[in-house]
Write a structure and sequence with these properties.
The chain has 84 residues and is mainly alpha-helical. The chain has 1 helix and no strands. The protein starts with a helix and ends in a 20-residue tail after the last helix.
Length: 84
Amino acid sequence: MSVSRSLPRAAVSAAVWTGSSIGIGYLLTHGVAGLARSVAIATLVGRMLLRQAQRRLLLHTLGQVRPAAPGAPAPRAASSGGYV
């Protein structure tokens, strides 16, 4: 095959490969950006839910410890079982 026939075919082939690579990259970039956005939103929502659950657990735990009534004697400290 002569150079005059193979050169245009090679140029068309290179243009097709380049165009398809750029097109696939363009489509994947937008897909990855959308995925990254979804992951970021899910992470933030998960963090907010976790913090809320931790806060509720803390308030529930603190709610079980009732303050002494005014004028009542202070509770004794728990002993560690050792001698003083």
